[in-house]
Amino acid sequence: MLEKFTVHAGRALPLRRSNVDTDQIIPAEYLKRVTRTGFEDGLFAAWRKDPEFVLNQPQYDGATVLVAGPDFGTGSSREHAVWALMDHGFRVVLSARFGDIFRGNSGKAGLLAAQVEPDVVETLWELIETAPETEIVIDLERREVRAADLRAPFQIDDYTRWRLLEGLDDIGITLGHEAEIASFEAARPAWRPTTA
Amino acid sequence: MGRTLAEKVWDEHVVRSAEGEPDLLYIDLHLVHEVTSPQAFDGLRLSGRRVRRPDLTLATEDHNVPTVDLDKPIADPVSRTQVETLRRNCAEFGVRVHSLGDVEQGIVHVVGPQLGLTQPGATVVCGDSHTSTHGAFGALAFGIGTSEVEHVLATQTLPQARPKTMAVTVDGELPPGVTAKDLVLTLIATVGTGGGQGHIVEYRGEAIRSLSMESRMTICNMSIEWGAKAGLIAPDQTTFDYLRGRPHAPQGADWDTAVELWRSLVTDDDAVFDKEVVLDASAMTPFVTWGTNPGQGAPLGAQVPSPEDFEDGGDRVAAEKALTYMGLEAGTPIRDIAIDTVFVGSCTNGRIEDLRAAAEIIKGRKVAESTRMLVVPGSVRVRLQAQEEGLDVIFKEAGAEWRGAGCSMCLGMNPDQLTPGERSASTSNRNFEGRQGKGGRTHLVSPLVAAATAVAGHLTSPADLPTRDDRS
Description:
The complex is a heterodimer of chains A (196) and B (472). Chain A is built from eight helices and eight strands, in the order E-E-H-H-E-H-E-H-E-H-E-E-E-H-H-H. Chain A has 196 residues and is of the alpha/beta class. The longest helix of chain A is centred in the middle third of the chain and has 13 residues, at 118-130. The two termini of chain A are 33 Å apart. The model of chain A has no long low-confidence stretch (mean pLDDT 96). At the A-B interface, helix 4, helix 7 and helix 8 of A face helix 2, helix 3, helix 5, helix 10 and helix 11 of B.
């Protein structure tokens, strides 16, 4: 079971970069762990060496919402990218466009990847750069972002939204369809290859 | 209305479909490697679940494995633990694994096709974004995350929202010396890294039809680099000829049944794609990247662009950051960029045809003194085949390093890495910051450009090299 996600309120971190691939979110050298937690040390590891990097700026300590440029989470399928963000404390990423696999992984692991219009990202960047303490509200029930005067919709597919709201584990859901899987299997052509 | 190839394969695998839910798709082949699977197996253990179909699952060790000292234990203890964890998990759950030292070991996307496990019309998944490679056979193949790996292990299915469809039609004929890699790099520079997002892409047209299976794999492999969910090519005689006789290909009467079905796996004439991109192969030239994402590329004959060349503000900032990271000045002829390391390998260009192409150029020549060249076969089988053809000798005589099979310097999870500031010409798929080692700078190239570059010491194509007869 995932933790249920309904409304989240927290401070936000502006990441003024486009095409943030998952190699940047967590470099390969941090993927060697066989555990499911402890990936926060790898988060943006290369960029974090720069003291000016936004994640190192104290006014954004404790931010739980990441506001990023378009094409966030492209590249490698590593779910470790989602784990690293969550282990660091992020619950939501806002971007105008996500890599498909990253978005899928987020939905499975309980991170909300909310797609907003590019101008919403711009507005939020300006807002949180001027006033880092601004509280951003992400309302999954209404699919809405609210901050200061801003009130904007975000996109997320119905099924992922429902699973996050309910905190459901989708393996459990699928195993509920066991009979359908078994009957599909029984009808598969016998010549399909096996690894046996 | 007719259906596209992707829709036909999709429909064939729907276990369950309900209003407001994603389709539940059956998975014909689940490939597994050491990096993205340990937490998935742990999840099974925690919930007391088994692997539903170990007989549709295959594991191999590729990302972490060393390519030298193959007879010794893996030196890096963390890598060793991850590889040993895979072996333990496979033993516990009954999954076939090809470990280091096994003749079938290699990069998961090279191993599946060469065993004949990747077949037209199948669904193939793996916890690796380059699973799109298998689309070259007309399979629906895509990368998944670790939660989904666990889902497939437990259920052999995956809930998936139906993506849109796109056609990439490449007309004309590729000029000599221009390869599938140049084609796909040109495509990505044209459409951008997000251009395929949310779509399954079908590559079609004369230029695609005339490609070999291995070149088709190169194209499909890089589908993810422009954001596509999957990329596929309709199976044809080239596909059937490649598959026939492979260990897991259907045999006897089954072969005829299979081929009959496979021939129906084409997009109907009246099918409609949600989007179409058209390119002309005959206008293409050797193509390389100058930046830090695969869309930041240009013809080899061009100059490094200036950030001002980009209209979009985001692209301009991205170009600026990329040039700084890459240590490049706008206006520099790309051919003048000096290269420290040439890497030939990866699931993009680590198959036998790629090694043959590179060897053909390097034969009778020497790797430049300022440059090192690593040749890393995609699998042990590729390595053995190359050795049988004497390619290893050609590479070694030229001064290149002939290595064991694995992902190697494509992502630097093993010791094959660039050092900070070191610049590579690489036949792999990603030029992201630090991808091949912290601070490393990557230019993506074809195997032909890689080999010529190794000789010249700067980015170049075979056509630029002095002919061997002229060499004194």
